[in-house]
Amino acid sequence: MWFDEAVVYQIYPLGLCGVLNEERSSDDSVVGHSILEVKDWISHIKKLGATCILFNPLMESDYHGYDTRDYYTVDRRLGTNDDLKEVCDAIHEAGLKILFDGVFNHVGRGFWAFKDVQEKKWDSPYYGWFHLSFDGNTEYNDGFWYEGWEGHYELVKLNLDHPDVQNYLLSAVDYWIDAFDIDGIRLDVAYSLPRWFMAMLKDHCRQKKADFFLLGEVLGDNAGYMFSEAHLDSITDYPGFKG
User: Fold this and answer.
1) How far apart are CA 135 and CA 165, in angstroms?
2) How many CA atoms lie within 13 Å of 175's alpha carbon, on the beta-carbon side?
3) How large is the C-alpha radius of gyration of the chain?
4) pLDDT tens figures, 110-158
């Protein structure tokens, strides 16, 4: 497979494009186009010997990208879906592969389904999308308790056991493949994801693209299981530097 010998150049778009700390506008019509600046980097990246570009989160988020609001829309601070397609087309024309960051364990508090739960509580059809209880509360005083990623309540944990959540995420990946022709995904906090979910995602993506690549973010202790049970192609074994 192409990824067996790939050299990956990683880009955190919100940082590279200088928009991370921009004040979010409540006006949906206010859109930047800074993601187009990435095109100016392509020749440099290729000269370095890289064969693939990994983009950290690109989709609409509350702040830093890992707090997703919408998996189908590029962050307005970066640009439009058409802008991103233009960038991806230029990358592929240069002979480089593309990876997106798949943040599927949790979403931001601005995620549309969570906002519906905030408004309608138990009457929301989406309350089953999250691990929550109407008998408790959090520091945000929503009137219900929910599980946040590793105790961080700005990152709302998704209920991946829910079929509608699975279908939503798989459909989002289908859209990324169809619209931007991505070649793989880096799975954020893969060590927190159910292994059956990653295996399902891998099988789904391989049906769309036979050489699709899945990279899991793993901390080390459970690294071996990522291959045998989650069907991942590679992992980020962070503690490896200690060797």
Assistant:
1) 23
2) 15
3) 18
4) 999 999 999 999 999 999 999 999 999 999 999 999 999 999 999 999 9
Phi-psi region of 65 (alpha: psi -120 to 50; beta: other; left: phi over 0): left
Mean of the per-residue pLDDT values of the chain: 93
Burial of 123 (0-12, 13-18, 19+ CB in 10 A): exposed
Q: Which two tokens stand for residue 175?
A: 């859209």
Say which residues have a Cβ less than 8 Å from residue 226's Cβ, sequence separation at least 6.
Answer: 190, 195, 198, 216, 218, 232, 235
The length of the chain in residues reads 243
Taking a C-beta distance cutoff of 8 angstroms, is the pair 149, 189 a contact? yes
Q: Closest Cα partner for 173 from 160, 162, 158, 183? A: 183
- Read off φ and ψ for residue 86, nearest 5 degrees: -60, -40
Amino acid, res. 110:
G
- pTM above 0.90? yes
